[in-house]
Design brief:
four-stranded antiparallel β-sheet; 1 helix; five-stranded mixed β-sheet; Immunoglobulin-like; 27 strands; 3 domains
């Protein structure tokens, strides 16, 4: 979930690229053969195409049809020019003569956010594009209700980030993603416990609990998302195991350790490891350990030589970093 907002931006970029490829294909197929007398676009310098209107960052609303004016640099001839826009924006057909005027349709249920479009032309030198123009799309009406996913956040480690995805229920759209709306405001009641940025990404900072307030518009609906930053922790029945003296090559009775999950979320134990002199078996790695649940680890001792023997029991999880280690000791004795 951590990259949900980045994924949304990436999707916008992919859709924009797909639109540009589509319009490029149309221009290539529909354009006449290059005119040898036409002046080609310079290899360097400012783009030969410029979107005159609307202005970059213009505020528009779903359901509107937006006039678009494109200007070509004097002396640079184009056989066709079209618009490429991120879905779900819809542009009018490419034109083969000036004036280069187009329309851009904003569908009625377009999710709020920033969308980009650009102009693409085919001239004697090939394809040329304008600098992209951003549109800030926002609805005119207020949502009847807000819904956040997740509805509650339980962090498993400090520094962990979880993005909030917010949907609004409107009279004509029961569930519309409004996460990228500029009208959506996020606030943590205790940033020292969990911080939230303008994109709705929540970060665990310090142990405790707090609430993330989500507001749509300065005086609109408010949604509260509870947050707990009590990381999942392991409680061990013992910090070390001492086996005492054992004849070299023989097995000491196994000792049992109990592991308890003291956190508020389930915990996945991915590995329980020791050295060869301390054989181990467990029921901790058979599935997620629920909050408050316990499991057992059985450790034996088979000294390979005489004298002090030292090992470590290492417990790996998906949430607790670094791994938990338990000291194992024993004494190997030679047979008399």
């Amino acid at each position: 979930m951590r990259d949900a907002n980045n994924a949304s931006k990436a999707k916008n970029s992919i859709e924009m690229a797909a639109a540009l490829l589509a319009i490029a294909a149309l221009l290539a197929l529909g354009a006449a053969a290059p005119d040898a007398s036409a002046q080609s676009q310079p290899a360097a310098g400012p783009p030969a195409l410029r979107i005159v209107s609307p202005a970059d960052g213009a505020l528009v609303h779903p359901g509107e049809t937006l006039p678009v004016t494109v200007q070509a640099t004097p002396g640079v001839n184009f056989q066709a020019i079209g618009l490429g826009a991120a879905a779900p924006l819809q542009s009018s057909h490419a034109r083969t003569f000036a004036p280069w005027n187009f329309t851009l349709q904003i569908p009625k249920n377009t999710p709020p956010g920033i969308y980009h479009f650009t102009a693409l032309g085919r001239g004697a030198a090939g394809l040329s594009g304008s600098a992209p123009v951003a549109l800030q799309i926002e609805r005119r009406d207020m949502p009847l209700a807000l819904l956040a996913q997740p509805a509650r956040i339980d962090f498993e480690s400090f520094g962990e980030e979880i993005p909030l995805v917010v949907h609004g229920a409107f009279s004509d759209a029961p569930s519309l993603d409004i996460t990228r709306s500029s009208l959506l405001l996020f606030r943590s009641e205790n940033p020292a416990v969990a911080a939230v940025d303008s994109r709705g990404v929540v970060t665990a900072v310090h142990p405790g609990t707090t609430v993330i307030d989500i507001r749509y518009g300065a005086s609109g609906k408010i949604l509260r998302v509870p947050v707990s930053t009590e990381p999942t922790t392991l409680v061990l029945s013992s910090e070390s195991v001492a086996f005492g003296s054992q004849a070299v090559g023989s097995s000491a009775p196994a000792r049992t350790l109990t592991i308890r999950n003291s956190g508020q979320a389930s915990l996945v134990i991915t590995g329980v490891e020791t050295g060869e002199e301390f054989p181990v078996s467990d029921d901790c790695t058979q599935g997620p350990l629920p909050a408050g649940g316990s499991c057992s680890i059985h450790v034996g001792f088979v000294p390979a030589g005489a004298g002090a023997r030292v090992g470590r029991l290492r417990i790996e999880t998906l949430a607790v970093t670094p791994a938990t280690e338990i000291l194992l000791t024993g004494q190997g004795s030679s047979a008399r």
